[in-house]
Structure formats: structure tokens, C-alpha cells
């Protein structure tokens, strides 16, 4: 999947069923939360900047690798 240098929107990512499944598996309970709903209009880079320090860097790197492989 082309993440466009992280400028892809969260809502666009969620339209892809495989990307949605990755998020659901790696971050259970996040999809559908109020914070996640607010992030729909944000870019992937914006969201990553906000969650930096909340999620282990290794996990974020793993998710990015999985998304790129789609």
C-alpha cells in the first residue's frame, strides 16, 4: 500500500479491509473509540506524532511495515 510518505488519511486507510484488520489486531479496542473517530480526517503522520510515546516504537514500526506490504 502506498502510504504517500505518511500523508494518507486515516479514513482512507480504514476503507481498506486489510489495513483495518491490521489496526484491529494490533490496537484492539481503538477502532470505534471517540479518539479514533476524531482521527479520521488526520494524516497517518499526524496520528503517529500524537501517539508517540503511548505505543512502543517497535509496534508502530511493525504496523507501518505491514501496511506498506499491502
Task: Describe this protein's structure.
The chain has 70 residues and is mainly alpha-helical. The chain is built from 5 helices and no strands. The longest helix is centred in the C-terminal third of the chain and has 12 residues, at 57-68. The radius of gyration is 11 Å and the shape is globular. The mean pLDDT is 93.
Based on secondary structure, the structural category is: mainly alpha
What percent of residues adopt helix (DSSP H or I)?
A: 55-70%
* Largest sheet data: none
- Envelope shape: globular
The total of beta strands comes to: 0
How many individual helices? 5
* Cα radius of gyration in angstroms: 11 Å
Structure summarized in a few sentences:
The protein has 70 residues and is mainly α.
Helix-strand blueprint:
Blueprint: H1 10-14, H2 17-26, H3 34-38, H4 44-51, H5 57-68
Please name the defining characteristics of this protein:
mainly alpha, globular, single chain, 70 residues, 0% strand
